[in-house]
Amino acid sequence: MSKKNVSKIQPELFEFTNENLKKAEKEIKKYPKGREASAVLALLYIVQSQNDNWIPLAAIKYVSKLLSMPYIKVYEVATFYSMFNLTSVGKYFVQVCTTTPCMIRGAKKITDICKKYISQNEDELSENKLCSWREVECLGACVSAPMMQINQDYFEDLDETKTEEIIQKLLKNEFPEPGSVKNRKNNSPEKGKTTLLEVKNA
Ligand code: FES
Hints:
five-stranded mixed sheet; 202 residues; binds FE2/S2 (inorganic) cluster; alpha/beta; globular
């Protein structure tokens, strides 16, 4: 189970907007009667998109009522998956992969830069409240290690200089160009391809 911080500041109430309630009902209808609990992931995702990218405990209670599930079961789901945030995150949410391939290729330097420029601890907002960061498990882009995800985009083949540039831009409320900082396309080799030479676009 992933390690999760839960926000100390919690709103007392949560409910879906009319539009999101309709979306939730549509998700629930996808499952047979008695199996409504299967919509829990989809509903938590809707909560998060409505609530500035994090899920308060009041929303977990709200979802548990909507799905007639025990509160603890919804809490278990929300704490298990790292894509659900239980504490407020910045407008720019930086997730640094620190699993072995990224670690071997320098992920520690990236987390040090996050500590220096964003906040000393994970899940804390930067002074200007724009950014927060967190260490995460493998994000499936090991071939371009080290890497980080910012909101929905991947930043790959990072080094210290590029990482600093990216973080500085975020802190100025600018979103940097995502992708490989070495301009690699489709995980192609750094020094040009050496196999499948005869295959076009390989
Ligand atoms: S180990 Fe970092 S993306 Fe897989």
